[in-house]
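Data availability (excerpt). The following record was deposited with the supplementary files.
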Amino acid sequence: MKSILFKFSVLLFLLLLSLKPNVQEYQGQAVYFAKSKMDLGTWGARMSEAQKSQIQARLKNRLEKTYVLNFNKEESLFNEEDKIDAISGATDSWGKNFSAGEQYKNVKENALIQSQEFYGKQFLVKDKLLAIEWKMGKESKQIGQYMCFKATASVPTAALTWYSFSWSELRANANKMKKDSTGIAVEIEEEVDMTEVEAWYTPQIPVSHGPAEYWGLPGLILEVSAGNTIMLCSKIVINPKEKIKIEAPKKGKEIMKMEYKATITEKMKEMRNNRGRRRN
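Predicted structure:
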């Protein structure tokens, strides 16, 4: 009798062990629609509404994008879906030089690996995940079938836009320099430009992932607003029949975020100078 009970106990233990969820077995896929508002500044103030609408239509590929986030308990892979330009009939290859590439995050190892292509040269950005100090709110709302809760944070803008470039940012950085009494250029200390972030996460999907740079909440982030961009999850599939493969990008010159930013900034300045020399 004892022998039978022992065998039964062993079988029960093995059965329970086999039913224990594995970190890699919990998987999901979330699709996000992102929409940005175009800031035309003083230039836009001189334009008619018809002109503004025309520019919005021409830049639709850069203002409206679809992304896919594949995830398990520890890892995620975030990437933009290729989109055909309605006007030119081609993908926006120029815009990709200043857009986020395929992004791998590992929340257990605090690691980010992101593939970036800049004018035909491949880079592999390896760095830590963005440190975000979330403030947990009490507000809640329903997004699809999921109950979500609000969290907010204030994040340095440069930490969100390290893969992009703008001439206005370059001019702003140049204006921060002044000459001291000896004639040497020194940087003027100014307040760090911050972006206010509002996120909505659901504990019903118990992973710390989210789109783009966002992560670190006790549930999947389904909606995030930052600056002039909002991302909203439009579709979720948990534990799909076909297993999701999550692998970090591997090709490219290894570099850190701020090094990458400095590299593309110098290249753009070089291209501008070369154009100036050709005109002379």
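Summary of structural features: The chain has eight helices and 14 strands.
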